Amino acid sequence: MKGIMDKRVSSIIKEGVNLLEEAGVVNARSEATLLLRFIKKWQMHHLMMNMQETISQEDTEEFINLIKLRKNGYPLQYITGTQEFMGLAFEVNPNVLIPRYDTEVLVEAILSRDLPPKTRVVDVGTGSGAIAISLAKLKPEWEICAIDISEKALEVADKNSRKHNVRITFFQGDLLESIKKTNIRPDLIVSNPPYIPALEIDSLMKEVQFEPYLALQGGEDGLAVYRRLIPQAFSLLGRQGCLALEIGYNQGEAVSDLCKSEGFQQIEVIKDYQSHDRVVIGVK
Length: 284
Ligand SMILES: C[S@@+](CC[C@H](N)C(=O)[O-])C[C@H]1O[C@@H](n2cnc3c(N)ncnc32)[C@H](O)[C@@H]1O
Description:
- This protein has helices at 9-22, 28-40, 44-49, 57-71, 76-80, 102-111, 130-138, 151-163, 177-180, 213-216, 224-236, 252-262; strands spanning 7-8, 54-55, 82-85, 88-91, 120-124, 143-148, 168-172, 188-191, 242-246, 265-271, 277-283.
- The protein is of the alpha/beta class.
- The protein has 2 domains: 7-72; 82-283, 3-Layer(aba) Sandwich (Rossmann fold), CATH 3.40.50.150.
- The strands form 3 sheets. A 7-stranded mixed beta sheet has the order 7-6-5-8-9-11-10, sandwiched between helices.
- Helix 7 (130-138) links the parallel strand 5 and strand 6 (143-148).
- It is elongated, with a radius of gyration of 22 Å.
- The mean pLDDT is 95.
- The structure holds S-adenosylmethionine.
- S-adenosylmethionine is lined by residues 96-97, 99, 103, 124-128, 130-131, 147-150, 153, 174-175, 192-194, 214-215.
């Protein structure tokens, strides 16, 4: 028997949309729809066919609780536990940065280069494993290692590597320190390191405040990690070895200069789809 408080799907979605719009959420309708589908485990066509059905009080309460989390800026991806990157679904939780479309520019830049057939890659600061796993999927013959200082991030990356059935060797440690202790000599070092100046983090979108500080904060001017990583990468790479870095929209010149002064050559700055500097690549 249906409870007296049961509501129709259409009216509960409307309620969710109104609450999200009040909080200024841009895609209120699609987010409310997605959250209800998430609770009901419905595909889109199930939702469309069930608009006049009733929803139990329990599901309604769960839905409103999730809508309230979103109103407070809690990222949708941490609620649903997933984010797409390079066409693959990555599991995410608050221990990892939510992979960004901007980072696809870094992966595409690597794929467009003429690299050895069995390229040995090290991904520094792997987070959810987005970069390392997409490279492993697209270039199955490459040998890929991935590092993070955060054990909890590595748990997520490992889970994602198993989900996508790729073999990656994971290391926990500070930048390239753990690799230096092995006999691995990479042809390519890739990294999307934390690069936001510490004092700017508070002024970013509410959603970003829920992401790991360790994944965001790049010291006073945002360049602290590059200053340590670039010399370490230079000494570990062999001749013709390549370093590919994601950068902040206004860091093209500063990061290129750091690479140049270390000895990297053929330095290129690549722009993202908004025409902002996004990637710096250098060759040893
Ligand atoms: C901006 S996130 C990038 C995550 C992922 N590669 C991506 O592109 O979505 C930076 C990552 O670097 C890791 N990290 C921060 N400092 C580090 C360090 N000193 N050594 C290794 N990893 C570090 C963080 O834990 C975080 O996972």
